[in-house]
Design goal:
Layout (H helix, E strand, L loop, with lengths): L1 E8 L3 E3 L9 H11 L3 E5 H6 L9 E5 L10 E3 L1 H10 L5 E3 L3 H7 L5 E7 L8 E2 L8 E10 L5 E8 L1
Parallel strand pairs: 1-6, 1-7, 3-4, 3-6, 4-5
Antiparallel strand pairs: 2-8, 7-10, 9-10
């Protein structure tokens, strides 16, 4: 199963200067609970932005055109990312960013996990792609954070 997992502001913003422009530990905890034991697929800049690499207890797959060698992660071209995860026995795949990774995997995604962050980020430089929600069904909604910034997780399944 391929899931896209993202936190986005009201204007679709997901990043600024290669970092998340808000602090919501409840969302980070939900991300960790969901992705543990799965394969996380990310772009090189997302990999470089992680405070701790690799993300523990997950297969870390970094999509890049640059050859790389790292003991704790796979550096692969886009077309090989999911096949490599399957070859290692991982059935749950999570695209975790950035924008180009989301755009590339959206057509094949089975599930969207979108945390709506109740903020506008006019100075953001990275945005989640537009999604036609008519092809998705809202399966669940969870309030993750009730203080500023409010965060609500929406789970969508492809119709």
């Amino acid at each position: 199963m391929l899931s896209l997992i993202v936190a986005r502001a009201r204007n679709g913003a997901i990043g600024r200067d290669n970092s998340i422009p808000w602090h919501a530990p409840e969302d980070l905890a939900a991300f960790q609970r969901e992705t543990l034991g799965g394969a996380v697929i990310m772009g090189r800049r997302t990999w470089e932005s992680l405070p701790r690499r690799p993300l523990p207890r997950r297969l870390n797959v970094i999509v890049t055109s640059r050859a790389g060698d790292h003991d704790e992660a796979l550096f692969l071209p886009l077309h090989a990312a999911r096949d490599a995860a399957l070859a290692q026995g991982y059935l749950r795949h999570y695209a975790i960013g950035g924008a180009e990774i989301y755009r590339a995997f959206l057509p094949d995604a089975d599930r969207l996990l979108i945390t709506e962050v109740d903020l506008d980020m006019p100075d953001a430089d990275t945005f989640f792609p537009e999604v036609d929600l008519s092809t998705w069904r809202l399966a669940a909604r969870h309030e993750l954070r009730t203080t500023d910034p409010l965060c609500t997780l929406h789970e969508y399944l492809r119709v």
